[in-house]
Amino acid sequence: MDGDKAYVLGLLHDIGRKFGVRHLGHVYDGYKYMLELGYTQVAKICLTHSFCIRDLSVYIGEFDITDVELQELKVALNSAEYDDYDRLIQLCDALGAANGIVDIEQRMQDVKNRYGFYPQNKWDKNIELKLYFENIAKQNIYEIVGEL
Q1: How far apart (Å, rounded) are the C-alpha atoms in residues 103 and 72?
Q2: Model confidence over 117-142: pLDDT tens digits?
Q3: How far is CA 22 from CA 6, 17, 62, 77, in A?
Q4: Phi, psi for 116 (deg, rounded to 5)
Q5: Contact predicate 86/132, CB 8 Å
Q6: What is the pLDDT of residues 4-15, one digit of tens each?
Q7: Which run of H or E residues covers position 120?
Q8: DSSP state of 28
């Protein structure tokens, strides 16, 4: 993997938030914005970062987009070819909180406490992603991203 590319993708994964405070809307807005600019790989990251499980029903938050936009996201998500950049940004999103890096299980529990649920298959997939990258790096993820 190219570290600079991963860094830029990580910086831009939430670019949809520039259009306002939205839940699923930020995914859609970022995806569409990056497509319009011709940055298809960034657009894909904007789309996939919230979906370590390729299923819109596991989205935690409001479905604040139109039915037409929802259908567009569904088609795009189903056709997206995930790679390690998608998986890495999904993992980093699961490790990051407003105040920095946090334990992945604490982060998921915080989301569960705030929203009232956290799908078990998504929880398990996040742990799987953590183990996947630890296996590749042959190092604990928290040693790589910095101490908690």
Answers
A1: 33
A2: 999 999 999 999 999 999 999 999 99
A3: 24, 7, 8, 19
A4: 90, -5
A5: no
A6: 999 999 999 999
A7: helix 120-137
A8: H
